[in-house]
Design a protein that fits this description.
The structure is a homodimer. Helices cover 44% and strands 17% of the residues of chain A. By secondary structure, the first copy, chain A, is α/β, with parallel strands linked by helices. Chain A binds a DNA duplex through α1 and α3.
Chain lengths: 321, 321
DNA sequence: CTGTTAGCGCTTTCAG
DNA sequence: CTGAAAGCGCTAACAG
């Protein structure tokens, strides 16, 4: 019994022949150790819970990929919880502490106060990724600054009429990033003494097709912009396809810049703001490890590096515009 | 002790006042039940293990979404294992039986014989999705037929020179679908008495950018096709962008059809073959439930419905071609 | 309706 | 180096 355990855990205090014997018998009997019993006595599960909204969005998936890589590398498993509604978020945050995970990574979801309280009191170590809360260690991104970087790039290319295509504030789950990026655009304009024209802003449901419609509306209107900042690469692609459908050359007649630097941005030549999706996913789990191993005093905040990536969908403003 | 358990499990045999007392004390002490102990004694974990290759590919993610929906609806959690190399597949299949999951869904991965044997002998109930093995219940798709549907659609539109852009056989992990779809294309051609021209085939690494390069090469060559079947929607998008970059109108001068019917296919107007990614993910978990609840005699095989979805990237062959 | 008791299958002292 | 024994925290059967 105890010896079997020692073999399983590769304890050195087992003679080679005993080990061989045990292994043979295990094979003969088709013995499989019981994870629950093991977890019970060891007081940990080697699982990390990962809570994400809208699993299918490419940006979310890239984050998950970074998370997964580190979790798997540390020998743990990743338990995924997808959240697409407020009710689900609520019920999930309630039962999450009881799931016995060694740690939690919560992505992009604003934390209601009571859930935060409960997690802190009775939950496992938790980090937030792309979400803010004073009491948790977190990896965040400065969306306002990101929007500003995007707009500055276009301003540097001579553009003055800069439009914005983004998400309608998704009231229930409360995502702010699109809104913050638009504020960054406004800031950049005002820094250069230019006015922000609300007529050049279109927001709607998230998605490529929806963004295409928003952009088409914007481009067909009077005083169309010479450049558009999209709140995400997904939306930028929609904007570009709308522009091309309407016969505008990109970037000849319209410059477009996205946000995220998704994997597909590079092959598409999409100009964008890189926020290191995979990289920050990785960082979040590493942060969690630091907490778990006790090397951290209080909650800390890591800010993701933002980088403008100029490719071929943004160019100089057309002459005469 | 036992009463607390009863409260936790919502047993009716608890007086309201006792229940209230227990709940109050639980709250005061910040009591959280231990999942491992519970799992140990109940003999199950309420977790389903999901093994997927290349988590970041959109098609895989749509499958996962279907899986997740059903798993979550049944009150279980989904533990994700991402596989991007043969070594990882091997080590994973070895330790998977010990993870204590109530069931396993294995997506798109060919099962080596020994791993299959071990899973059958000592593993939990397992279903395969988009993978074939006589001994497992599985949800599969007829890729040859799918390729044929795509090609027939183009043939019906008058095309005779039909190209194919797909994946190089990814030797290590052994994905066959691209290859099978190309065989379907060939079959469709031969059904109409047309020869399959290997000069119109390009295969390479999976991805939009790579597909664009393959397509560009194909379109610049002599005797270019009037239509191209891509092995996936992702690749079809690459093909289309290459065509447009080279100045070919789609579908005016080149028809393109993809495969999968990803979410983005509809907004892009991409013609494609729908294989119900989300839907089959759902089916796989439902199949697993049927096994778990004992309502299944032997391994069964469910074939996914395939449907041609004609949109606006495919049209009649140009006059004179 | 509530308390007592016996394990679930493992790891970890502690003796030998 | 190996076996015996205790106990992780819960549930289920059994008395009361």
């Amino acid at each position: 019994m105890a010896t079997v355990s020692r073999v399983l855990n590769e304890s050195p205090n087992v003679s080679p022949e005993t080990r061989a014997n045990v292994l043979r018998v295990m094979a003969d009997f088709g013995f499989v150790p019981n994870a629950s019993a093991r977890n019970l006595v060891r007081g940990r599960t080697d699982t990390i819970g990962v809570v994400v909204p809208f699993l299918t969005r490419p940006g979310v998936v890239e984050r998950v990929r970074g998370i997964e890589a580190v979790v798997a590398a540390s020998g743990s498993s990743m338990v995924m919880y997808n959240v697409e509604s407020v009710e689900r978020r609520e019920s999930l945050l309630r039962v999450l502490p009881e799931q016995g995970h060694d740690g939690l990574v919560i992505v992009s979801l604003p934390m209601p106060h009571d859930a935060a309280q409960r997690l802190l009191e009775v939950g496992p170590p938790t980090v937030l990724l792309d979400a803010h809360h004073r009491s948790f260690s977190r990896v965040v991104s400065n969306d306002i600054h990101g929007g500003r970087l995007a707009a500055r790039h276009l301003l540097d290319l001579g553009h003055r009429r800069i439009g914005f295509v983004g998400d309608a504030p998704r009231l229930p789950l409360g995502f702010w990033s699109s809104r913050l990026r638009s504020i960054g655009v406004r800031l950049a304009l005002e820094e250069r003494g230019l006015a922000w024209d609300p007529a050049l802003v279109r927001v709607g449901e998230h998605g490529q097709g929806q963004a295409a419609e928003l952009a088409a509306d914007l481009l067909r209107g009077p005083g169309r912009p010479t450049a558009i900042v999209a709140a995400s690469d997904t939306q930028a692609i929609g904007v570009i396809s709308a522009a091309r459908t309407l016969g505008f050359d990109v970037p000849g007649e319209l410059s477009v810049i996205g946000y995220d630097d998704l994997e597909l941005a590079e092959p598409l030549g999409l100009s964008t703001v890189r926020q290191g999706l995979t990289e920050t996913g990785r960082q979040a789990v590493e942060l969690l490890h630091r907490i778990t191993t006790g090397g951290l005093a209080g909650p800390i905040r890591i800010e993701a590096a933002l980088e403008l990536v100029a490719r071929s969908t943004s160019g100089r403003v057309p002459a005469g515009a």
